[in-house]
């Protein structure tokens, strides 16, 4: 395990630096030779044994007596670089970002979490996880203008049981004509988003595709985010010119069912893993029967996620026995990754 002050080398890049911050169990911040602080995964660095400074020998008692007192080591004063201000970037814009190692398959590998300050404001931040009835502090500090900060990583197991991500931000300028109100925001991310490659898109913050959430959204941003796909289509239809009514109104041929336990229950307190699996399987059977009886439904997709695979195995076991007349397969990888099963009820 690394500790503050350790000199390290980068495995995937030239050079190295000094560990200045430890973030969880798998990430540290390293200050390189140019004075920039870089978030790096632990498995991407090694100790720099050759460049590590030798430990100062502790003076003997005789030397200490002769000197009269131990001399304090001289500390080098490092001059801080002024923050980078961008002309016209004076509106507060803050984001929570999820950056997967592989945006084509977000569940392959880990996903980094970032706090982004896309403005000329200085930000004092407090980052916590909300689960149950309490906030668990993860990190607090200061974010300079027009910078981003790695807050940690998510594994596949973490994605299956995400907390709400909570932020408290106080933002200010060194010279301003008004005081800004502190910002408090909680973001609940549906794990299904990580199974769909369409949830990740290009941005000006990273070379790779990323999932972004705006922290200081306005009323219109929030309203748009809460609109379901069905409501969006309804709004679009209302804005379109009137059309001649069709004789036949078709119902959806594809049904999606999210079996994640937090989508089925408000709380899992007091429930064992078996209890939760029973709830999920009961929902599976209920939706299967509804889809079978609805002649319009031709395919049904059950989103079960990866996790330890128990739900997926139980679901497919029952499909192979109780519902063996209906073929099933992995759902579209582009839409759901490896976390969903599609059942074909009727051929087109």
TrEMBL record:
InterPro entries: DUF2027 (IPR018598), Smr_assoc-like_sf (IPR036781), Smr_dom (IPR002625), Smr_dom_sf (IPR036063). Signal peptide: none annotated. It holds the Pfam family Smr. Gene3D superfamilies: 3.30.1370.110, Smr-associated-like. Residues 281-346 form the Smr domain. SUPFAM superfamilies: Smr-associated domain-like (SSF158949). This is DUF2027 domain-containing protein. The lineage of its organism: Bacteria, Pseudomonadati, Bacteroidota, Bacteroidia, Marinilabiliales.
